[in-house]
Amino acid sequence: MPDPSPRYAFDRIPEPGEVFPVAPGVGWVRMPLKLTGLSHINLWLLDDGDGWTIVDTGINTHQIRELWDQVFDTALAGRPVTRVICTHFHPDHMGLAGWISERWNCRLWATRTEWLFGRMLYLDSQPKTPDFFVDHYRKVGFGAEALEIIASRSYENYAKSVWPIPEQYRRIVNGETIRIGGRDWRVVCGYGHAPEHACLYCPETGVMISGDQILPKITPHIGVYPAEPDANPLQEYIDSLDIFRPLPKDLLVLPAHNEPFRGLHDRLDYLAKHHDERLNALVTLLDEPKRVMSTLKVLFGRIMKPHETFLAVGEAIAHLNCLIEQGRVVRDLDAEGIWSYRRAGKAADAA
Asked: How far is CA 203 from CA 43, 248, 341, in A?
């Protein structure tokens, strides 16, 4: 299914450190980002009457802290930041929540699972990569050289990307209404990209802050990783698309990446069809048993670059686990101790 061109709402994007108004009481802040395939993150500054609410924070770098200082110096009109809301725990979203909370003596607001994940990963920082982590990628089919590189790295990536995650927070829940600047914002939780991702919908202004749950041009990353190798986040994500269908079709969607856009329902339709097509293509491929690495070109349409492999493998396993749960694919452990996948009903010895 061709990806329909997004209907972007504005003809310009803000410079780093600039606040660009996109709706009543909503300012768009754009910060640089150096993650695979991503050059920026969109953050949001909400007028909250006597103060300001920040939604998402950026990753913990000196550059982004300086850019936030620029925003604080030029855009707050002498009013303090009184609340930080994070859509989910990923470091480009929660990375500076602790720093902003400390600086302004304000509370982090997040869903319980996202706060727990962020806090856990920050504390679970080890100088040596755990054995289970290396074993996972051995079963995936990584070679000896790649496994040696994995084993030699520290287990501290998340902790190095975030300011210490606050020890206290204020829980938000699906369906809750948060009063911000005299307007009601409803929490709408989605799943799959993160375990309990919070979007914020304001009926009065027809705006939704979607975080990473719904993006206009790229599909959110949905992956399976060593701590929960049998997880099925893709089915959670597909199912959660229907949560957003009752929202207005002309909603202004404020995503974390790319640009604000309209056409929510078209995007939901595309995302559902996109994953359905990829799942069906995998089933066809698995008419003969295949390892994870052999599925990447079918899923992504190209050979992956080395720095993309971890994310690509995580997405591949998410699709394969989804098919296993649907009863369409079976996973075996082959003679070399590596996972092999085949269409249900095909003999395991066909490899």
From this structure: 20, 9, 46
